[in-house]
């Protein structure tokens, strides 16, 4: 089995950009940003429980990573940068922690490296369990109306919030609930030590209004990029600035390799 995805061509010999969306998104989430990076071949994936991969269920991060590895092999992707937002960023960090041979670099937007104590994990397990129950039992419009009232989304305007609720409500609640529980922060390992031991560049993006992930960024051994006029969902709120940051990262790394 492999993940569903959409690919776009780039210059031969250039490392791929492999994009992973956030919870309740799909392969379209990164395409505006990716369209500005046309020198690189791009692959936009649907994570399990989402989009064209909605039928795929997983038991945890190891299973998601195995699907990602199988997908890369199926596309004959030998050299690649992994770009992930939120849930996609957490999966990208888990993948990088395994030190796969073809990974050239890691770019994460607003991804959590993992909780550090049992109390936080227990609280997150309860919270995600409550959300999963709602996703399975209630209309998605109602659930997402409350989901986007969480503090991390405080920078959204009412119009942005309405657009996201409409877009995300096209999902299957049961599939989202399964993925939410399988990849909860309650079961994600703390990746900080593994990321410090990585052998590839690590760049971390966050919106200037995203106070929670600005603090997390300071904990990481990563090159940080602050995206202006944006909160947690920076690539949606200011795609031009995110695309410019990615282009700069890639230009610098190509120059360093010459």
Automatic annotation (TrEMBL):
Pfam families tied to this protein: Abhydrolase_6
Listed InterPro entries: AB_hydrolase_1, AB_hydrolase_fold, SHCHC_synthase_MenH
Name of the protein in question: 2-succinyl-6-hydroxy-2,4-cyclohexadiene-1-carboxylate synthase
Pathway: Quinol/quinone metabolism; menaquinone biosynthesis; Quinol/quinone metabolism; 1,4-dihydroxy-2-naphthoate biosynthesis; 1,4-dihydroxy-2-naphthoate from chorismate: step 3/7
Molecular function GO terms recorded: 2-succinyl-6-hydroxy-2,4-cyclohexadiene-1-carboxylate synthase activity
Record keywords, A-Z: Lyase, Menaquinone biosynthesis
EC assignment: 4.2.99.20
HAMAP family in alphabetical order: MenH
Domain of life: Bacteria
Family stated for the protein in its record: Belongs to the AB hydrolase superfamily. MenH family.
Xref: Gene3D superfamilies: alpha/beta hydrolase
Catalytic class of the enzyme: lyase
Catalytic activity: 5-enolpyruvoyl-6-hydroxy-2-succinyl-cyclohex-3-ene-1-carboxylate = (1R,6R)-6-hydroxy-2-succinyl-cyclohexa-2,4-diene-1-carboxylate + pyruvate
Lineage: Bacteria, Pseudomonadati, Pseudomonadota, Gammaproteobacteria, Enterobacterales
AB hydrolase-1 domain span: 17-244
Subunit details: Monomer.
Gene of this entry: menH
Physiological role: Catalyzes a proton abstraction reaction that results in 2,5-elimination of pyruvate from 2-succinyl-5-enolpyruvyl-6-hydroxy-3-cyclohexene-1-carboxylate (SEPHCHC) and the formation of 2-succinyl-6-hydroxy-2,4-cyclohexadiene-1-carboxylate (SHCHC).
One GO BP: menaquinone biosynthetic process
Organism field: Enterobacter soli
